[in-house]
């Protein structure tokens, strides 16, 4: 398992010239992206722009046809398990075992990651992720999307991953849950976790992200510092960058 | 009608239907044609040996009639034409009987005995395929009827746009039933027609009395009702299931329960609840009762009783032959014993078979088995009918031979010798199957049970369709 | 952070599977089925023992009756005892009174499988009559409906229901996670699909093996139907191992189905179809193959041959000629007399020998076919895991077709030994009819009732061990093959 030890100076995420084709369709056509500790990067783009492909490459579910994808210096294509050791991923729909409680789900997923959480540690992590205490022991089958996401965050917290991957994290959340979520992510970033989120939610992007990349045609066509624009201007700019057909 | 046509057109394009149809037609054709070939071969052999036996009987040398009675004759069970579709109890019962003096011989050589041990695996006949595979096909066709639409959201769309759920259900059921008729009814009708026509054309074994056509049509109707029943099961499950996966899992579980587990449970339950005397015990009882009758002392007592009855002291003074009369009376004793013991035994088995028809309430497969074999003329009643017909034939020979001896007293130590005229007096063995009306009467219970299943499922449909949720 | 250790992963999966209510519902149903099946099996074995005991009692009764007849007829009396009424004569006793049985006693493991016992009775009376042509006419007429549906025995539960229970338990593992999206959460953890699938299916296998073996043992103990185990523990151990391999085979099949990533519907449908193919369709096809490889000689042709021989024997003076010819092979020339050919007892012996000769080819063909069919069945059964295990269980139960074929051959040999015992005595009596008691009504020339050979059933254990071992080897190989195939496919998570 020596391959999984990251070079000390490697960036958390380094994608260089990544190309991914599915038959005749090109999903990514030379994507470049670097992310350092504590950075929050929002990947903006319409459906089919390559957001999910990017995430799949980072997780090692897919291998790039050309270019490199490195997580903490580890090639995700060659050693996906090693790369994933530094990544926590929260999909758009966090799916949990409906028959298990929040605590049990958390302990199960962390066991897969090689951790051995005590019950108390699990409770503390869920509380830290914002799940109210009475929900910890309830079956996850009755959880709302926001509650399930909090369990997902608790898994990420438990794993102390250096990179947090978020796929449409706020879609379908009510405003207060979304605000909670933003706060939790900002706190994680504050502790040095790099965050890559793929989203449509310009409001949350403006609120959370330090950097925004507009993904179109399989590569980042523009990188923006959201602090320099208000979110109406951000929206205008985003729409302008989209290809005609999707705008 | 147009909507049903549209649904049917949709199904006909479904690759699932084509696969299921192809597999079913293949299975039915292999089983049906294999059985047909065996039936033709058996029929031809039986015809040949029956003619040879008759010739041997008529061609006997002049001899004492009792020797001819011992020489006897073999008789063979004519197979129902529909045995090709549903052999029923035929493989489990003997097909040939040696008819001879004194003994109620068993019908021997059950096909199941000759078949290899693997042949009982379950798909040996067309009826087995209908009983086991057709429900599976109906489930695979029907499980997604509503659940898949619900999962895709198209059910929401349909109901939201004012399509009446009852209509939707009825149309889909009608279309799927039509599809099933296509992949099950037509192959069955094809094989059945081949059997009925081929048998008439080949001329082997008398088909008269079987009334093959009405039997065939009723039989196919029963199989289709059974298929429709499982289609209803699948669609009902589909009405309730959240996803197609749940629907399939639940429908398969029901199939396993009804077609695999329940039948064997029913076997165990019936055997426990309706205890039957074993055949071995019956035979032992008959032997035990015959033993004291057969001793020299009993024989002497009987001959003395006859002499006393006629008021004479010597056999030669009798107006009849003592040995002949004793044989007549001896046989009468045996006949009464056989009637009592075997009569009760066969009645017991028939009673068990009737209970099995009611056990159809546990599983439609059991009801179909009972109904199908009764309609096909291959049920146990038909076998018992053959056994008793053969026994009646045996008795008619023994009686004729014995009375010949009795009525021609021989004196001075000579033995009566009879010739071809006497042998010719015995008609060839003729077996007429039970009339169709009897089969229909016997089929009433299993048909009722199957109808109850259908009615129950339709009854379940109504509230479920009414409360259909998208 | 280190990779998850497998035992911990396995423990987590075990917790997961044992937390599901469905698991417990399946296990309870399985154990209940096993107990019920063992109970019906115990009943069947008890009935077989009763039949055996009845045969023994009948044999003893026949000897008792004959000895009583010796006393009864041992003084002068006025009655006439014909040869068919006389148990004190060798021919009379052998032909009309003796109750000699060939029996196939249940093995200590007979409770496991009904096998062919419902169509091939284990007790057959050795008969010197000639109405049946063949020796395998013993029949136990019963409900044909029950025979068609089959018994609810342990073999049925273990071979047919256990795979279904496994499919219900493990058939949608991984694929239902795939459908619900949980798989994405699992895949995002730093662990490969082989480890996760390995833990998931190993947990399912542990639960299923424990439930199957434990449930079967419990059922056997509760039913009390196991016989005296002495010498059979090795067979039982081999069978338990084969059963475990069968369970692992089905769990591996579930893993393979999951590795195709076709979703739970696809996995379930595929597994149930595979189950139907392996337990129903393939055995049927193998049965057809056995029929083709060892075609059944026509019973009707044999009947025809027997009747031709019979007709020939009774035509003209043939009976006398055949008897004289037979006597010339049995008696030295100096004791032969022409009138011996008219002695009814000798005529009868000669006639039976004549029939036997006429039918020898048919009997040989039938026996060869029975042995060939059972040999082919043994070989072909190994192709399907279900038939392989069925045969192993039936052989251990002593209810397989192979043992029956051997039993019939032994029964024929037994009949021959009885004939060899009686024939010299009958001949000697006919050649020099020495009256034992003047004025007594019976012949009183035979009293060696206790010296009549008894049937010695062959040992069924060697065949049972061999079959169990072969089955274990085949099932083990099949389970390994499926596991390897599944592992090969589970190299990568689906994207």
From TrEMBL, chain A:
GO molecular function, one term: ATP binding
PANTHER family, A to Z: ABC TRANSPORTER ATP-BINDING PROTEIN ALBC-RELATED
Record's protein name: Multidrug efflux system ATP-binding protein
Keywords associated with the record: ATP-binding, Nucleotide-binding, Transport
Upper classification of the organism: Bacteria, Pseudomonadati, Pseudomonadota, Alphaproteobacteria, Hyphomicrobiales
Residues in ABC transporter domain copies: 13-242
UniProt source species: Methylorubrum suomiense
Keyword Transferase among record annotations: no
Sequence similarity: Belongs to the ABC transporter superfamily.
Record keyword Transport present: yes
UniProtKB/TrEMBL annotation, chain B:
Pfam families: ABC2_membrane_2, DUF3526
Alphabetically ordered keywords of this record: Membrane, Transmembrane, Transmembrane helix
Parts of the chain that traverse the membrane: 20-36, 129-148, 173-196, 216-239, 246-266, 443-465
Coiled-coil regions, chain positions: none
UniProt key word Transmembrane: yes
InterPro entries registered for this protein in UniProt: DUF3526 (IPR021913)
PANTHER family on file: ABC TRANSPORTER PERMEASE (PTHR43471), ABC TRANSPORTER PERMEASE PROTEIN NOSY-RELATED (PTHR43471:SF1)
Listed name of the protein: DUF3526 domain-containing protein
Biological source species: Methylorubrum suomiense
From TrEMBL, chain C:
Alphabetized Pfam families for the sequence: ABC2_membrane_2
Entry protein name: ABC-2 type transport system permease protein
Spans through the membrane: 21-42, 154-176, 197-222, 234-258, 265-290, 468-487
Signal peptide: none
Lineage of the organism: Bacteria, Pseudomonadati, Pseudomonadota, Alphaproteobacteria, Hyphomicrobiales
Keywords, ordered alphabetically: Membrane, Transmembrane, Transmembrane helix
Keyword hit for Membrane: yes
């Amino acid at each position: 398992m020596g391959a999984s030890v990251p070079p000390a100076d490697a960036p958390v995420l380094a994608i260089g010239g990544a190309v991914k084709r599915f038959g005749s369709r090109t999903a990514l056509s030379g994507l470049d992206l670097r992310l350092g500790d504590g950075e929050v990067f929002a990947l903006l783009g319409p459906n089919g722009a390559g957001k999910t492909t990017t995430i799949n490459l980072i997780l090692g579910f897919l291998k790039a046809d050309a270019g490199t994808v490195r997580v903490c210096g580890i090639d995700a294509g060659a050693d996906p398990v090693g790369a994933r050791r530094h990544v926590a991923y929260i999909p758009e729909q966090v799916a949990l075992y409906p028959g298990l409680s929040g605590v049990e789900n958390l302990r199960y997923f962390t066991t897969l990651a090689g951790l051995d959480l005590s019950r108390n540690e699990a409770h503390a992590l869920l509380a830290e992720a914002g799940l109210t205490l009475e929900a910890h022991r309830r079956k996850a089958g009755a959880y709302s999307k926001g509650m399930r996401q909090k369990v997902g965050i608790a898994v990420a917290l438990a794993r102390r991953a250096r990179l947090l991957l978020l796929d449409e994290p706020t879609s379908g959340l009510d405003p207060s849950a979304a605000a909670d979520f933003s706060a939790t992510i900002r706190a994680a970033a504050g502790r040095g976790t790099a965050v890559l989120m793929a989203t449509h939610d310009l409001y949350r992007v403006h609120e959370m992200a330090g950097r925004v990349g507009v993904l179109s045609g399989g590569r980042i066509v523009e990188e923006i510092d959201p602090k320099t624009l208000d979110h109406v201007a951000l929206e205008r700019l985003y729409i302008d960058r989209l290809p005609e057909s999707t705008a | 009608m147009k909507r049903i046509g549209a649904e049917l057109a949709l199904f006909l394009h479904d690759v699932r239907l084509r696969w299921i149809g192809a597999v079913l037609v293949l299975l039915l054709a292999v089983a049906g044609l294999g059985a047909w070939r065996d039936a033709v071969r058996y029929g031809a052999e039986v015809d040949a040996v029956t003619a040879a036996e008759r010739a041997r009987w008529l061609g006997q040398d002049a001899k004492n009639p009792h020797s001819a009675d011992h020489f006897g004759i073999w008789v063979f069970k004519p197979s129902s034409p529909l045995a090709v579709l549903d052999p029923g109890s035929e493989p489990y019962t003997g097909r040939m009987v040696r008819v001879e003096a004194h003994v109620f011989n068993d019908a021997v050589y059950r096909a199941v005995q000759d078949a290899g041990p693997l042949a009982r695996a379950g798909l040996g006949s067309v009826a087995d395929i209908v009983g086991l595979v057709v429900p599976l096909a109906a489930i695979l066709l029907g499980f997604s009827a509503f659940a898949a639409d619900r999962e895709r959201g198209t059910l929401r769309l349909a109901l939201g746009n004012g399509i009446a759920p009852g209509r939707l259900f009825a149309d889909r059921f009608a279309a799927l039933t039509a599809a099933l008729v296509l992949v099950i009814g037509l192959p069955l009708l094809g094989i059945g027609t081949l059997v009925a026509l081929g048998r008439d054309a080949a001329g082997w074994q008398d088909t008269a009395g079987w009334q093959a056509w009405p039997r065939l049509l009723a039989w196919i109707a029963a199989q289709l009702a059974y298929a429709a029943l499982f289609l209803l099961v699948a669609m009902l499950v589909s009405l309730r299931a959240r996803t197609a996966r749940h629907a399939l899992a639940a429908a398969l579980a029901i199939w396993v329960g009804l077609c695999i587990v329940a039948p064997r449970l029913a076997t165990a339950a019936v055997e426990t609840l309706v205890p039957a005397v074993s055949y071995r015990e019956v035979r032992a009882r008959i032997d035990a009762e015959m033993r004291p009758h057969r001793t020299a002392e009993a024989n002497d007592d009987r001959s003395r009783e006859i002499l006393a009855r006629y008021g004479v002291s010597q056999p030669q003074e009798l107006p009849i032959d003592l040995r002949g009369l004793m044989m007549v009376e001896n046989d009468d004793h045996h006949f009464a014993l056989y009637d009592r013991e075997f009569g009760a035994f066969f009645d017991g088995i028939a009673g068990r078979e009737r209970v099995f028809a009611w056990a159809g309430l546990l599983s439609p497969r059991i009801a179909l088995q009972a109904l199908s074999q009764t309609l096909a003329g291959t049920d146990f009643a038909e076998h018992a009918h053959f056994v008793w017909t053969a026994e009646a034939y045996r008795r008619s020979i023994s009686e004729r031979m014995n009375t010949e001896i009795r009525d021609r007293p021989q004196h001075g130590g000579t033995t009566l010798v009879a010739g071809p005229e006497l042998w010719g007096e015995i008609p060839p063995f003729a077996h007429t199957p039970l009339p169709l009306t009897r089969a229909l009467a016997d089929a009433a219970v299993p048909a009722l049970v199957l109808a109850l299943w259908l009615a129950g499922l339709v009854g379940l449909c109504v509230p479920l369709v009414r409360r259909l949720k998208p | 952070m280190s990779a998850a250790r497998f035992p911990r992963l396995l423990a987590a999966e075990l917790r997961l599977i044992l937390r599901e209510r469905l698991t417990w519902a399946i296990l309870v149903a399985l154990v209940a089925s096993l107990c019920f099946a063992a109970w019906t099996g115990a009943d069947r074995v008890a009935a077989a023992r009763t039949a055996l005991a009845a045969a023994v009692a009948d044999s003893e009764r026949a000897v008792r009756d004959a000895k009583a007849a010796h006393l009864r007829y041992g003084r002068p009396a006025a009655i006439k005892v014909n040869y068919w009424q006389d148990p004190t004569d060798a021919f009379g006793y052998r032909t009309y009174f003796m109750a000699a049985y060939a029996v196939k006693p249940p093995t200590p493991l007979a409770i496991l499988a009904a096998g062919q016992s419902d169509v091939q009775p284990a007790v057959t009376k050795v008969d010197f009559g000639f109405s049946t042509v063949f020796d395998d006419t013993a029949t136990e007429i019963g409900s044909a409906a029950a025979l068609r549906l089959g018994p609810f025995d342990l073999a049925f539960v273990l071979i047919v229901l256990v795979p279904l229970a496994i499919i219900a338990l493990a058939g949608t593992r991984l694929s239902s996670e795939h459908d619900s999206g949980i798989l994405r959460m699992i895949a995002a953890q730093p662990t490969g699909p082989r480890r996760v699938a390995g833990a998931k299916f190993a947990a399912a296998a542990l639960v299923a093996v424990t439930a199957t073996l434990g449930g079967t043992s419990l059922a056997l103990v509760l039913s009390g139907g196991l016989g005296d185990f002495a010498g059979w523990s090795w067979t039982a151990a081999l069978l338990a191992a084969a059963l475990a391999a069968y369970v692992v085979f089905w769990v591996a099949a579930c893993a393979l189905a999951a590795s195709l990533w076709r979703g739970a519907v696809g996995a379930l449908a595929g597994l149930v179809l595979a189950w139907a193919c392996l337990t129903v369709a393939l055995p049927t096809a193998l049965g057809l193959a056995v029929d083709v490889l060892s075609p059944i000689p026509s019973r009707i042709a044999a009947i025809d041959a027997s009747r031709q021989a019979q007709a020939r024997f009774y035509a003209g003076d043939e009976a006398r000629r055949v008897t004289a010819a037979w006597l010339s092979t049995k008696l030295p020339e100096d004791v032969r007399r022409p009138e011996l050919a008219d002695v009814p007892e000798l005529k009868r012996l000669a006639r039976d020998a004549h029939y036997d000769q006429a039918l020898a080819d048919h009997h040989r063909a039938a026996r060869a076919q029975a042995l060939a069919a059972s040999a082919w069945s043994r070989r072909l059964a190994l192709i399907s895991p279900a038939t392989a295990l069925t045969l192993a269980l039936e052989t251990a139960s002593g209810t397989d077709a192979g043992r029956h074929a051997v039993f019939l051959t032994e029964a024929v040999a037994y009949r021959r030994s009885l004939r060899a015992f009686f024939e010299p005595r009958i001949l000697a009596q006919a050649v020099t009819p020495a009256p034992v008691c003047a004025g007594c009504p019976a012949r009183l020339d035979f009293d060696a009732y206790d010296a009549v050979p008894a049937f010695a059933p062959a040992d069924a254990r060697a065949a049972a061990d061999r079959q169990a071992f072969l089955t274990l080897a085949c099932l083990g190989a099949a389970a390994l093959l499926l596991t390897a195939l599944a592992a090969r496919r589970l190299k990568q998570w689906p994207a």
